[in-house]
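I would like you to help me understand the sequence and structure tokens below and explain how sequence relates to structure.
___
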Amino acid sequence: METKEEVETLKQLSHPFLKKSISSVTNQALDYETVLEPHEIRLIQISKRD
């Protein structure tokens, strides 16, 4: 980003979204597939349950 105008444009186009889901592992494999929009990022946190 080079200008203040570009930053403001991105702020207007950004739509934060939070989604939580719980999945089960079968055969010691977790399958996840998705299609990202241009410039979209995803954070995936995986933790082991006791």
In short: The mean pLDDT is 83. The longest helix spans residues 4-13. The chain is about 20% helix and 0% strand.
